[in-house]
Amino acid sequence: MTQQHSDLTERLCRSLASHLVESELTLSCAEGDLSEWRKECDDARALIAEAGFDIDVLYPVEDRPVVTPEDEMDPDLLAEIRSGKKPQ
Description:
The protein contains four helices and no strands. The chain is an all-alpha fold. α1 (3-27) runs antiparallel to α2 (35-50). The longest helix has 25 residues, at 3-27. The chain is elongated.
């Protein structure tokens, strides 16, 4: 593989890792039959590994977004979010 292809593969895997993390985050809050969605996430993880990359290196855990349960959120911020205003 040429350096150019290697760089492209890494950039594609980095992008896939970002989208995978976002999908898994959304999936953690979703309801219903999610088997296909879960399979797509598993397949994405497998592709990243097959390309020789570690998702935790491409997208470190400390850089990832998290879901904060409503009961742990600041009440004023939660009210702003529910009102549709952009949080300050």
